[in-house]
């Protein structure tokens, strides 16, 4: 009986520790050492919050850069974050990818099938990836420039300015946050007026 009481006490102590103290320590660490004091980074346009920088959004108009496709609910639904769980030989998956390639080529007639970046037609593991590689942004520059009536080089320069370098110059790849890139385009449009 003595051992049972001791086990119950230890269990209660660990429950309190892991459900309260541990979470409090992580929260304090995020407030002190994390970016934005542990809060999500939000992106604003004209003083209004338009989205979270770390969650992808669905852009389908030609005037915007597009992100990776999402398998999370009805387009980037953070409450149902997930991949498709379909393997690369699954006929349904292959049909989805083929359909995405066909749609991409309709909007990018200057590309051939082999020039379509794989990440533009395949969803990420979370289905919420907010970033694309520079290559994926560059293949869209001509479409966006034509749709906005801008010079191709001007749009390419906006992409280059929005590029994020690898962590410490070695970890990861150069990438572009699609929402921030599209906000930069909108701000360029406003500054022209």
Describe the structure.
The structure is a single chain. The protein is 47% helix and 9% strand. It has helices at 2-33, 91-107, 134-148, 152-162, 178-192, and strands at 42-45, 48-52, 131-133, 163-164, 175-177. Strand 1 (42-45) and strand 2 form a beta hairpin. The termini are far apart. 19% of the residues are buried. The mean pLDDT is 85.
Quick recap of the structure?
The chain has helices at residues 2-33, 91-107, 134-148, 152-162, 178-192, and strands spanning 42-45, 48-52, 131-133, 163-164, 175-177.
Question: Which secondary structure elements does this structure contain, and how are they paired or packed?
Answer:
Blueprint: H1 2-33, E1 42-45, E2 48-52, H2 91-107, E3 131-133, H3 134-148, H4 152-162, E4 163-164, E5 175-177, H5 178-192
Antiparallel strand pairs: 1-2, 3-5, 4-5
Helix pairs in contact: 3-4, 4-5
The side-by-side strand order for the widest beta sheet comes to: 3-5-4
User: Rg, please?
Assistant: 22 Å
Low-confidence stretches: none
Instruction: Provide mean pLDDT, rounded.
Output: 85
Helicity, as a percent range: 40-55%
Q: Give the overall shape.
A: extended
Q: Give the SSE order as H and E letters.
A: HEEHEHHEEH
- Count of DSSP-assigned helices: 5
- How would a crystallographer describe the biggest sheet? 3 strands, antiparallel
Distance between the ends: 81 Å
Q: How large a portion of the residues is in β-strands, by DSSP E? A: 5-15%
- State the secondary-structure class: mainly alpha
Number of E-type strands: 5
């Amino acid at each position: 009986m003595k051992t049972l009481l001791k086990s119950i006490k230890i269990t209660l102590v660990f429950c309190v520790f892991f459900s309260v103290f541990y979470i409090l320590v992580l929260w304090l660490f995020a407030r002190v050492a994390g970016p934005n004091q542990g809060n999500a980074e939000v992106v604003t346009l004209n003083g209004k919050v338009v989205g979270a920088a770390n969650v992808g959004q669905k852009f389908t108009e030609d005037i915007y850069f597009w992100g990776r496709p999402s398998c999370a609910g009805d387009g980037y639904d953070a409450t149902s974050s997930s991949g498709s769980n379909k393997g690369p030989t699954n006929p349904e998956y292959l049909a989805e990818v083929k359909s995405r390639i066909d749609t991409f080529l309709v909007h990018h007639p200057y590309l051939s099938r082999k020039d379509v970046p794989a990440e533009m037609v395949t969803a990420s593991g979370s289905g919420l990836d907010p970033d694309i590689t520079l290559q994926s942004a560059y293949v869209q520059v001509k479409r966006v420039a034509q749709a906005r009536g801008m010079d191709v080089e001007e749009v390419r320069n906006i992409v280059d300015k929005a590029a994020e370098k690898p962590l410490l110059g070695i970890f990861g790849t150069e990438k572009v946050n699609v929402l921030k890139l599209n906000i930069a385009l909108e701000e360029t449009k406003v500054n022209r007026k």
